[in-house]
Write a structure and sequence with these properties.
- By secondary structure, the chain is α+β, with helices and mostly antiparallel strands.
- Helix content is about 45%, strand content about 20%.
- The protein is built from seven helices and seven strands.
- Pathway: Cofactor biosynthesis; ubiquinone biosynthesis.
- This is Ubiquinone biosynthesis accessory factor UbiT.
- It comes from Marinobacter azerbaijanicus.
């Protein structure tokens, strides 16, 4: 029998809200742990995990030359707090995961990146509300934001699904 747990956001109850507030206040930030994990994962593993899905997701746009203006450029996406993060570049007709800083950095909460990826909110609103921030070469960062906003793509990040076997 398979069942899916509902997303926490859909459970509207005062008790849940209070519990989450206590957790946020008293539990340490997960970012130091995520940073430690991120530093220990070699770049080739990150490349295996991210490059193929990114290139499939944007295959039509890459073929149509939409990413050509980004040839040889590096953009870093970082969760608030500096880590974890990923630097992405475009070389020889492919999106690549790279090591090191980017010419531009787009920084925000994991939730803001999820909202952007799922296209649930206008990207300009996320930037105007300072949920996402561009640092460094802002022209490069805005160019990527505008490109992603103009493309037709669909990404849905689903909550974990659990299965239970009957014995």
């Amino acid at each position: 029998m398979a069942f899916s747990l509902p997303p926490i956001a859909s459970l509207n109850s005062p008790l849940l809200d209070q519990s989450l507030a206590v957790i946020r206040e008293y539990l340490p930030s997960p970012f130091p742990v995520l940073e430690a994990i991120d530093r220990r994962i070699p770049v080739p593993f990150k490349q295996l995990a991210a490059e193929a899905p990114l290139n499939r997701l944007f295959a039509t746009a890459i073929t149509d030359g939409e990413f050509d203006d980004f040839e040889g450029r590096r953009i870093r996406l970082e969760a608030t707090g500096g880590q974890p993060g990923i630097t992405i570049g475009f070389w020889a007709g492919r999106l690549r995961v790279l090591e090191g800083p980017g010419e531009a950095t787009i920084r925000g909460s994991l939730n803001a990146f999820k909202t952007l990826a799922e296209r649930r909110q206008d990207p300009d609103q996320l930037f105007f509300q300072r949920q996402l921030v561009i640092e460094g070469d802002t022209e490069l960062g805005l160019g990527l934001k505008n490109l992603l906003d103009s493309l037709e793509w669909d990404l849905v990040i689903r909550p974990f699904t659990f299965s239970r076997k009957r014995r």
